[in-house]
Design goal:
The protein has 397 residues and is of the alpha/beta class. It contains 15 helices and 14 strands. The radius of gyration is 24 Å and the shape is elongated. The mean pLDDT is 93.
Length: 397
């Protein structure tokens, strides 16, 4: 059974291993709330996962340690288990989905684990890990549906209560539910008045659907840039804890997640992965009722694959009105391009890309199209530029 004593014991065990991460004031995330960020993206291994993994491994018997451990993961739990096993002198084997970012695969190996890449998603890696556990006799370290793992994650809740005594709400990412289960249990046990909000990606709403319908449901497929929370089915224990201790679960889109990653980078100088940024996205886009409250966004991890970072930034720029694409129909005569560029320049827009195309079938014989990509300040700025172009007689298509 999960108890507050067990979470305090986990805190004691973890004291020499993990970092007590900072709570950073971030008012710009949502000016209507008093927002703080719990920076687990700056934890050792770049994620909160090391807390639960290390505590679980610390509680193994000598016989279990001798047999070695096995785990499955989208990446962060893998690194936590690898580090914890290596520090305790235990052999570890990690099953990862073959689509896991190369950076996470290499990091797992660097922490001392053997890696087994499995075709498919997290759930396929999970099935393979159980198969190997039964075949080789390893001890399986579950990424979320385990009381010791949940207790380890719950140490974040203890830190939050100490760091912000007048806490009103905590917003937490949900994949399988281990993190929010531990945090919610710890905080609600100490102060039942604090609201706990969970966030999932719209492309992987397994806990959202399950809690809403009152029973565990399995998704047919998951699709989101937040690979760390792309879980098809919540755990038995985590479903119970979420049903009992979490006040509300909401979802955010990949575009909203991208905008949050960009905001964290620009405003707070923090690198967050998709799963880590969903809590900030929920507060940025008012998915949870935090107006006028002291609210903590738990930034759960920072292990974003640099190869997708540029794509995420591009999506974030579009989502926040910092970039826009215009298609203008022109009469093909001298001076048209000059007219367009003067209007944009006078309003402070910055042209980053331009494509001029002569008319094709179905359009005016003397017509042409101008496709322009602009850097802009916000949505109001985009509308101001569009209106000025229309007022000058130009046609936007």
């Amino acid at each position: 059974m999960l108890t507050l004593d067990k979470i305090y014991h986990a805190k004691y065990v973890l004291k020499q291993v993990i970092r007590e991460t900072d709570l950073i004031h971030a008012p710009n995330i949502n000016p209507e709330a008093n927002v703080y960020l719990k920076t687990e993206n700056l934890q050792i291994t770049g994620s909160f996962k090391v807390r639960g993994a290390y505590y679980r491994i610390s509680q193994l018997s000598d016989e279990e340690k001798a047999r070695g451990v096995i785990a499955c993961s989208a990446g962060n739990h893998a690194q936590g288990v690898a580090l914890a096993a290596t520090k305790n002198g235990i052999k570890s084997l990690i099953c990862l989905p073959d689509g896991a970012p190369i950076s996470k695969v290499e990091a797992t190996k660097n922490y001392g684990a053997d890696v087994c890449l499995v075709e498919g998603v997290y759930d396929d890696a999970y099935a393979k890990a159980l198969e190997l556990r039964d075949e080789k006799g390893y001890t399986f370290i579950h990424p979320f549906d385990d009381e010791d793992v949940i207790a380890g994650q719950g140490t974040i809740g203890l830190e939050l209560v100490e760091q912000l005594p007048n806490l009103d709400a905590v917003v937490v990412p949900i994949g399988g539910g281990g993190l929010i289960s531990g945090v919610a249990f710890a905080i609600k046990s100490l102060n039942p008045k604090v609201k706990i909000y969970g966030v999932q990606a719209t492309g992987a709403p397994s806990m959202f659907n399950s809690v809403h319908d009152g029973h565990i449901e399995r998704l047919e497929s998951v699709s989101t840039i937040a690979d760390g929370i792309a879980v098809k089915e919540p755990g038995t224990n985590t479903f119970e804890y979420c049903s009992k201790y979490v006040d509300e679960i909401v979802t955010v889109t990949d575009d909203e997640i991208s905008a949050a990653i960009l905001a964290l980078m620009e405003q707070q100088k923090l690198v967050s992965e998709g799963a880590g940024a969903v809590s900030a996205a929920a507060v940025m886009f008012n998915k949870v009722p935090v107006k006028g409250k002291n609210v903590v966004c738990l930034i759960s991890g920072g292990n974003i694959d640099v190869t997708i970072l540029s794509r995420v930034i591009k999506r974030g720029l579009l989502m926040s009105g910092r970039s826009c694409s215009l298609n203008i129909e022109l009469v093909d005569k001298p001076g048209q391009l000059k007219k367009v560029s003067e209007i944009i320049a006078s309003l402070g827009g910055n042209v980053t890309s331009i494509h001029h195309e002569r008319a094709n079938e179905g359009s005016d014989v003397i017509g042409c199209y101008l496709r322009i990509v602009l850097e802009t300040r916000n949505y109001q700025h985009i509308e101001q530029i569009k209106q000025a172009l229309k007022d000058s007689g130009l046609k936007l298509v």
